[in-house]
Design a protein that fits this description.
Distance between the termini of chain B: 36 Å
Helix content of chain B: over 70%
Shape of chain A: globular
Radius of gyration of chain A: 22 Å
Number of strands of chain B: 0
Distance between the termini of chain A: 44 Å
Shape of chain B: globular
Largest sheet of chain A: 3 strands, antiparallel
Structural class of chain A: mainly alpha
Strand content of chain A: 5-15%
Structural class of chain B: mainly alpha
Oligomer: heterodimer
Strand order of the largest sheet of chain A: 5-6-7
Helix content of chain A: 55-70%
Largest sheet of chain B: none
Number of strands of chain A: 7
Low-confidence stretches of chain B: 175-182
Number of helices of chain B: 7
Largest interface: A-B, 33 and 28 residues
Chain lengths: 369, 182
């Protein structure tokens, strides 16, 4: 019993650290990557002791973004505006971050491994109703943003908070419908089960990934996910030109850093969901329990532990790939207008999602009959 | 579910329910209501009704209370102290409350504190079991309820649509579109 608890705690900490580290690296990647895309140099100041220069390397700005920025943000004055609701103002950033972080509990990052007779599921919480849990936590995520906008006693904040709430609720539906069509396809709400069902190949060479069964749902999940994370082209709640920074304009120091972290954690979350539902999660093409079985007939035998580690690495690589995709999209597209955003959500994605679920259901019933 | 956890969650939900009524600020009341509904959801999950528990959180916390928040914002409710009303109203209110407490007490006395353990199926509360009963035993009630909800949504859209006389301009779009969702 104590061992089970210990294993559970270790898994929870590993998942949390994984997410926070990827989020921090994304912060650096976004600054330096956007600079690359825009032909700038980007973050390059804090060159402590000139180590990089002495070794003949370019200054990559890693120290800036990962250490100097973090130190600065967490030592800055925490300013609470006059007339703000102090309690809610302090609570809001954590209400925003918490639901995003707990969502990762049900996302499987590897297959079941057996170490010294213990079967360990590489998933922080093995829920039968994982998909429902994800919908619930995404639904709660609205409050942090909404209350941040309200509690700041600032019109720009309130406008940003209202926009964010309306936007997140609208796109939650599209996201939910995308998840529903995947659930109908695989007949389970268990995320580990969905990953398992994506193992194996069709026609001897094509990996059985969800994207081939549900391409429309994948596009919907990515679009709705980007809208949920409130990033360009859906960053109207922050709209610098009209709202300065929207719902977090009155936040400074560590609380503002928490909002920033939430943004990046949401990017990681959307990537993890896309990976789990549509790209096989931890599945590596042609890799089975005993090793690789290539379509041309050859085989490489691997021990069980190596297969599990390959799975975890594959999951992280896939997640990073989707994070990269979202950052590239962010720095490529201009911002929508608010009515365009609402029209896309309610008149585009919602009917499309309903049609997708209906068609999926009919096909599943016909295939089962 | 261990007894101490049940007592803790039950106490939390009752205290936050009191908070909903006692708070002056409507947004603080709303926060207390969120805590109440979340703990009730967790209680459902702990008592084996996993699906109902998650649906409680998704529907009430994730959707309905956000609507409440919007209403509080749009009506710009303030936490002004209200004058407490006529003496007759106060008396009537006290009488009503006393009657309600007496009624609840009467029921409470009749109920055995330790009811005989009911036999529960092993898949009790699972999605499969819930949907089986919804789509077989209670199909007609379920479908009639969904029609009722749909009628309410259509009615709300019709009411919202009638108000602006201006032509279908870009400005009218988001408001009309948003009300469809509710």
């Amino acid at each position: 019993m104590a061992l089970e608890l210990l294993i559970g705690a270790i898994k929870a900490v590993v998942v949390l650290l994984l997410v926070l580290n990827i989020a921090a690296i994304l912060l650096w990647f976004e600054r330096k990557g956007s600079a690359l895309m825009q032909d700038r140099i980007g973050a390059n100041r804090a060159n402590i002791f000139g180590i990089g220069k002495r070794l003949g390397m370019p200054n990559l700005g890693l120290i800036n973004t990962l250490m100097a920025d973090a130190l600065k943000l967490f030592t800055k004055e925490d300013f609470i505006p006059d007339g703000a609701d102090k309690f809610v103002h302090g609570l809001a950033p954590f209400l925003a971050l918490f639901p995003v972080l707990v969502t990762f509990a049900v996302i499987p990052f590897g297959d079941t491994v057996t170490i010294m007779g213990h079967r360990i599921d590489l998933q922080a919480a093995n829920l039968d109703v994982g998909a429902l849990y994800i919908l619930a936590t995404i639904g709660i995520g609205v409050y942090g943003i909404a209350l941040a906008g309200w509690s700041s006693n600032n019109r720009w904040s309130l406008l940003g908070g209202t926009r964010a709430t309306a936007q997140m609720i609208s796109y939650e539906l599209a996201m939910g419908l995308a998840i529903v069509s995947i659930v109908v396809t695989y007949g389970t709400l268990d995320l580990q089960g969905i990953c398992r069902a994506q193992g194996g190949v069709w026609f001897g060479f094509l990996p059985k990934w969800g994207i081939l069964l549900q391409p429309v749902a994948f596009l919907m999940l990515m679009t709705a996910g980007m809208a949920e994370s409130k990033r360009v082209p859906f960053d109207l709640p922050e709209g610098e030109s009209e709202l300065i920074a929207g719902y977090y304009v009155e936040y400074s120091g560590s609380k503002q850093a928490v909002f920033m972290l939430t943004d990046f954690a949401e990017v990681v979350l959307v990537s993890a969901l896309a990976t789990t539902f549509f790209f096989g999660g931890w599945q590596v093409p042609y890799l089975y329990h005993d090793g690789f079985h290539f379509p041309w007939g050859s085989m490489i035998a691997l021990p069980n532990v190596a297969v599990a580690i390959l799975g975890v690495v594959a999951f992280i690589l896939k997640v990073l790939l989707f994070c990269w995709l979202q950052i590239v999209i962010r720095w490529t597209l201009p911002r929508f207008r608010y009515d365009q955003l609402m029209r896309l959500g309610w008149k585009g994605l919602l009917p499309l999602g309903l049609a997708n679920v209906a068609v999926t259901a009919v096909i599943v019933v016909l295939a089962g009959a | 579910m261990p007894l101490w956890l049940f007592i803790f969650l039950g106490a939390l939900s009752v205290i936050s329910a009191l908070g909903v009524v006692i708070q002056r600020n409507p947004v603080h009341s709303l926060l207390a209501l969120i805590v109440t509904l979340m703990t009730i959801g967790v209680l459902f999950i702990g008592l084996g009704a996993v699906t109902v528990g998650f649906l409680q959180v998704i529907v009430y916390v994730g959707a309905i209370l956000v609507l409440f928040l919007f209403v509080i914002w749009l009506l710009n409710l303030q936490s002004t102290p209200m004058d407490s009303g006529h003496l007759a109203l106060k008396l009537l209110g006290a009488l009503g409350a006393a009657a309600l407490v007496a009624e609840l007490f009467a029921f409470f006395v009749q109920t055995p504190l330790a009811p005989p353990a009911a036999k529960v199926a092993s898949d009790y509360g699972s999605v499969l079991q819930l949907s089986n009963s919804l789509f077989s035993d209670y199909l007609i009630a379920f479908e009639v309820t969904s029609v009722l909800l749909l009628a309410a949504v259509v009615g709300a859209v019709a009411l919202a649509r009638r108000a602006p006389a201006e032509p279908e301009s870009e400005r009218a779009e988001p408001r009309a579109a948003r009300s469809e969702g509710w």
